[in-house]
Design brief:
homodimer; mainly alpha; Arc Repressor Mutant, subunit A; Tetracycline Repressor, domain 2; about 75% helix; DNA-binding
DNA sequence: AAAAACGGAGTGAACATTCACTCCGAAAAC
DNA sequence: GTTTTCGGAGTGAATGTTCACTCCGTTTTT
């Protein structure tokens, strides 16, 4: 690699910030270049085109996110404990990284991420999926299609974080616990 | 007056369909004109610019939606009954009108609708708001900020309908009732 | 000195918007 | 009843702007 400060990272970071702030269509490549302190042409040294830049950014964020969420996850704990653990981690991650949340949101609601949605549920959500299945087997969780259960869990999450980030709502630790509890009430038998 | 009294409607309908299918940035005015069977210039006879066209479309859909949702709403019924009634109506409306759902979703997640979000909660959601307040007073509903309660109700709704429309899930009347029940479990004390 | 990395003016395509014009139904003149 | 005039809805080629991406001269690294 070069001895220059890492331009690739600078470009990815600028892209994250700008897209979170202004959306895909509010961020021309020229603006990304400027914010990254880089020439326009340099972007194209590291990424084939804008689409690939965005997909790469997604992949890297997703990996970081996943690593964080499953941190300290222990298969042996009771279902409810594990449920709370995962929810807490997801909430904490997204609340601590509002830019990433906004980017991911935009990504999923765009032609970029349509196909990724399913993948998200199948791969990244795999341990979560297994957890719910086990909960059902133990008679703790309502017997519904997994997709519905996911909706009951992630729906409020997305909604509430959006409101938090836009200042409509101030989430603290206490409220967060009550929220997770309410989410459990929704899916528990 | 006009030779074809329906051009305005044709333009609005074409816009709805195209934006639902292809997003804001996938639908140039030229395409709207073509789909509406109208010249490009005609759009600008009825609407100041593309933004106003989209805002107008939103306003008209919102009015239609609201009228449907509060149909048959009776203030005197018990809180739970009214809750179920409103949820059912919203679900039914959005499931019966997937194009409108997709359009509204895009609208809210874009610079167009940022300001509208609050309004949505304050005006269109007013009876809903009052209902939750009453539920709290009667000790039926969890004592949480209204924004959180809204999140617990509308979050799953949006998520689940999205999954239904994309074919990930088949919602029927039975499942719908169970879903509304689960939502109530989430917010009830 | 050769090779790699970089920068940013330049290019063409896509787009929203405009405006000079057409066309037709209806009113006015006959 | 027939002809002329007129208003304004309707149109799409032309315009100006924005943007992703390229090309090549310059700088940095080896």
């Amino acid at each position: 690699m070069s001895r220059q400060p890492d331009k690739r990272t600078a470009i990815l970071l600028a892209t994250l910030k700008l897209i979170a702030e202004r959306g895909f269509h509010g961020t021309p490549t020229s603006m990304i270049a400027e914010r990254a302190g880089v020439g326009v042409g340099t972007i194209y040294r590291y990424f084939k085109d804008k689409d690939q830049l965005i997909h790469t950014l997604y992949e890297e964020l997703e990996a970081k996110n996943k690593a964080f969420v499953y941190q300290g996850y222990e298969e042996e704990r009771p279902v409810l404990d594990r449920f709370q653990h995962l929810c807490r981690n997801i909430y904490r991650y997204l609340l601590a990284n509002p830019l990433e949340f906004r980017f991911l949101e935009q990504y999923f609601d765009s032609p970029y991420g349509v196909a990724k949605m399913r993948q998200k549920l199948d791969s990244a959500g795999e341990p979560f999926h297994a957890l719910l299945k086990e909960g059902k087997r133990q008679g703790l969780v309502k017997d519904m299609p997994p997709t519905l259960l996911f909706g009951l869990i992630f729906g409020p999450m997305i909604n509430v974080i959006k409101d938090h980030d836009s200042g409509l709502l101030k989430l603290d630790e206490v409220l967060l616990e009550r929220l997770i509890e309410a989410t459990w009430d929704a899916i528990k038998k």
